[in-house]
TrEMBL record:
Organism: Aspergillus taichungensis
Domain of life according to the entry: Eukaryota
Membrane keyword on record: no
Gene Ontology terms, MF aspect: ornithine decarboxylase activity
Protein name: ornithine decarboxylase
Gene Ontology annotations of biological process type: putrescine biosynthetic process from arginine, via ornithine
UniProt domain Orn/DAP/Arg decarboxylase 2 N-terminal: residue ranges: 34-262
Amino acid sequence: MDLLIDFLIHTHISNLGQNGVSPEDDEPFFVADLGQVIRQHRRWKRNLPDVHPFYAVKCNSDPNLLRLLAELGTGFDCASIEELRSVLDLGVDPARIIFANPCKTASSLVFAQRAGVTWTTFDNLDELDTIKKHHPNAQLALRIFASDSDAIVDLSKKFGAPIDSTWRLLQRAHELGLEVSGVSFHVGTGASNIAPYIKAIQQAKTVIEQGKALGFLINVLDIGGGFQDSNFENFAPKLQATLRRELPTGMRFMAEPGRYYARSAYTLVCKVISRRLQTGAQPEPDMLYQNDGVYGSFMNVLIEKEVLHPTLVSRSLHRHEGGGKRHKGTCRYSIWGPTCDSTDRVVEEMAMESEVKVGDWLKYTHMGAYTTATATQFNGFRSHRHVTYLNSELIGHGTTRKSRHIRPHLISCQLL
Ligand SMILES: *Cc1c(COP(=O)(O)O)cnc(C)c1O
C-alpha cells in the first residue's frame, strides 16, 4: 500500500508544470486510500459486532469518504445543517443520521424535522424547550457526562449532563411530552483509557432505570467516539463484553467514531518553499518553511499537540530548483507553515536522514482526522486541497503475473 501511495505522490509531482508558472503547482496535496477505510470498517465489525458505527462527519467531511461509508452501511453523526445536508445529499436515509449536537439552533431543528432526521441529543433543560418548540416529535438521547482526562481532547468541559441531573431532565422531557429513547456519551477524542467508557455504561444503566420509572422505553445506547487505532483491539472486546453483560437484551448499541475511520487513510504531501540555515554560534536546528501549516491542515499540532515525523519524498523522480549535491547524514530541522504568524510551527525539531532543500516535498502519513476539517484561509492561503484517491482493496483482483506492475485503481482526483 505504501508503494502505491508513493507511486501516486511521484505521479502528482512529476505532472506539475515548470516551476514558478502556476500557483497550483505550489500547493500541498493529499493521497487518500479508500481501501484503508474499508479495512477499518472490517476491523470494526470484527471487534465490535454489536455496535453500529455512525461516522462523525466533523472529523473529515470529504464527500468521497462519506459516499464510501454510506455504501459500507454506516450511519452518520452530524452536528450542523451543512453536515446534515452533505449526508442527505448522498441519498442516505434520514433514519441513519443522528443529529448529535446537544446545543442546537432553532433553525437547524426545523431543518432536521423537515428532512426527516428524528434522532438528536440533549443535555440541558433549555434545550428541551427548544426541541419542544421546533421538533416536538424528535427521538431524544440524553447525553450524560463522561470523561477520559487522558484523551487528546476532553469534551466533558462542554457537554454531558452530570448523573445527579438526569432525573430532573427526564422528568422535564416527560412533562413536555417528548420522547426519550436513548442515552449517549462521549469520553473525549483520542481516548486512552477504557475505564471512563465502563463507568459511563454503568451510569447509562441508571438513566435507563430512571426512564423506565417515568414510562420511557430507553432502548438505544450510544457510546460515542474516541476510538484510536493504537488501542482498538484492546478496547473493543472489553466494551463488547461489558455491553452484553450489563445491558438488557433488546438494547441497540451505536457509536460515533470519527478519527478511527479517517485518520490512517490520508497522506499529506507538502513542499518546502524556503529554508534558513543557521549561522549563529547557538546549535539551533535549521528551519524549513513549507506550504501548509497550523492554520491549514495542521491544526492538530496546536490542538492535539501532535508530534509529526515527516519523511522526505525521494528526489530522483521530480524536478528540483535547488539542484546540486546534498549532505548525507543526519540534519536537524524545525518545520514551519506558510503564514506570517510565529505560532505556525508544524514540527519543533526533528532529525532527517539527509539534507532537505527548497523544492523538496515532505510526506506526512495519518493525516485524515481533523486536518482538512479545520483548515482556515488565514493570511490568504487556500484551505482546499487536491486529493488523489485510490482504493487499495481493488488491487490484485484479476491481475495476472505478467501484468503485476503497479496499476493503482484511481477513483478520481479533485479538490477538497
Ligand atoms: C467529535 C465527536 C465524535 C468523534 O470523535 P472521535 O474521537 O473522532 O471518534 C463523536 N461524537 C461526537 C458527539 C463528537 O462531538
